[in-house]
Amino acid sequence: HYININPLSKNKELIERYQLEDPNKIIVASYFGQVIRKKVLFNLKESPSTFAKNSIQAYDAKESLARDAVINSNFYTDWKNGSRNALVPTTFNGEEVILQGILSVSREAKGPNTVYFTTGHGENDPSDVSRENGYSQFQSVLESHNLIVKKLSSDPNTLIPEDAALVVIASPQVAFRKQEVSRLRSFMLERNGNLLILVDPVKNLLSDTPTAFGLRALLNDWNLRCHDMIINDPDISKFDLFTGDYSIRTFEKGNSHNMIKPINELGLSIFTGSMRPVEQEKSSLIKVNVDNLFYSSKSSWAVGNWLNRKKPYKYDRNMDRSGPVPVAALSERIDNNMFNDTRNSGKLAVFGSSKFFT
């Protein structure tokens, strides 16, 4: 609808229903019974008092306000300096913004619909837009699937909310407390929760930091382990010795998992940062199926005690593990619950580098 918000407008019913008070907006809205959902996608706030008396200055002021409104709407991305030093967009993103807006107000939530990122341990921020550590594009992908993204309190006395569809631990720098780990284990085992752990090799570890940032017991529940080792590879076409950046081209042969199949078939490589191994470990607590997703190359190895060894690393068979080394895995629960229903039986995905998702 194109709506004139004048009180005498023929759209009076819509104006009153959605409380449309200001002009120059793009809004998506829905009306389910008596429940109204509304989201503003574009908002140009004009105020006559802000404009100069001179017509040229007034035009520049309006143009500046309009440009700021367009920037804030995220309809366009990749802004660069143009003529007169003004920012000019190079990519139109409006279709995605509008579609996400429509989805956010039109779909009724059925079951858990929120992704919670843990906090309090130096984790990456889901709203960070930086190329190195930013997760803003990952957040956009989640939101495009009609999921809400929030941060999870680190207070172990608060339960993980009932609307949690997924919990993400994104590159912790310090260990989780035992009470926090117990809360996560309960979420996984008792509520069939889903958990994504992105764990990096960390240079500035505190001396008393436990294995895998205190998450070892949780990983063991799901037949996984994540030792504090770092992947090294003499193949300079795949590996940067100084930064640890890595181009993964090794996948499980015959792995038909939905995550791997298209990447494998297209022969794609994945660019990521320094990595630690993610290995299988036998446990009898629950029945799970573990898929190794990505591997380092045959020429690589996992370096043990890497913080106390000099570069370039030399292979030590007593401390190291020869490649290819698994660096990401997915563990899915397969034991039936009391209703013989395995549709929501819990998953744990672990990646040995947070850069997979930046």
What do you see in this structure?
This protein has 358 residues and is α+β, with helices and mostly antiparallel strands. It is built from 7 helices and 21 strands. It has helices spanning 12-17, 55-73, 94-106, 136-144, 178-189, 216-221, 261-266, and strands at residues 25-32, 35-43, 76-77, 80-81, 87-88, 91-92, 114-118, 148-152, 164-170, 194-198, 224-225, 230-232, 246-248, 250-251, 270-272, 279-280, 288-295, 301-303, 321-322, 326-333, 347-351. An 8-stranded mixed sheet has the order 8-7-9-10-21-20-17-14. Helix 5 links the parallel strand 9 (164-170) and strand 10. It is globular, with a radius of gyration of 25 Å. The protein starts with 11 loop residues before the first helix and ends in a 7-residue tail after the last strand.
Number of helices: 7
The largest beta-sheet arranges its strands as 8-7-9-10-21-20-17-14
Q: Beta-strand percentage?
A: 15-25%
> Averaging pLDDT over every residue, what do you get?
84
Low-confidence stretches: 338-343
Q: Which structural class do you get from the secondary structure elements? A: alpha+beta
Q: C-alpha Rg, in Å?
A: 25 Å
Instruction: State the helical fraction.
Output: 10-25%
Number of strands: 21
Instruction: Note the overall shape.
Output: globular
Instruction: Measure the end-to-end span.
Output: 38 Å
H/E element order: HEEHEEEEHEHEEHEHEEEEHEEEEEEE
Q: Main β-sheet, in a few words?
A: 8 strands, mixed
